[in-house]
Design brief:
The protein is an alpha+beta fold. The protein is 18% helix and 17% strand.
Length: 118
């Protein structure tokens, strides 16, 4: 479950705020299935009290925002991830630098095997 993006708020998120800068529009709709960059998750209170900047249009979902219910797919995926992380017999792959990649300072980018274009 995701929390409200507003500073200091600890309530569960039930809506997603998206800005459409080209149209000067703020859109508040049901909670997106995944957190996305440049969107904001809001609780019920903040979703209903939000106002748009001057000169902007606010489009708000007409209805009640409700927290999404976990599905069996969500629970199964979580259980599989926990099970896989806890395995002691899983193989550990050695990281081999790609040809032409210098060893030494580690940056924030890395080459992953199998990411070549076909």
């Amino acid at each position: 479950m995701r929390r409200c993006s507003r500073t200091g708020c600890t309530e569960l998120a039930v809506a997603t705020l998206t800005y459409v800068y080209a149209d000067s529009t703020a859109v508040v709709g049901p909670l997106a299935t995944q957190a996305e960059p440049h969107t904001y998750d809001l609780c019920t209170t903040h979703a209903h009290k939000l106002t748009a900047p001057r000169g902007w249009e606010l489009v708000r979902f007409e209805g009640e925002f409700a927290p999404p219910q976990p599905t069996s797919d969500d629970l199964t995926a979580l259980a599989e991830a926990v099970r896989e992380a806890g395995r002691v017999d899983r193989p550990v792959e050695a990281v081999v630098p790609a040809p032409g990649v210098q060893k030494g300072r580690r940056g924030h980018l890395r080459v992953l095997p199998g990411s070549e274009e076909e």
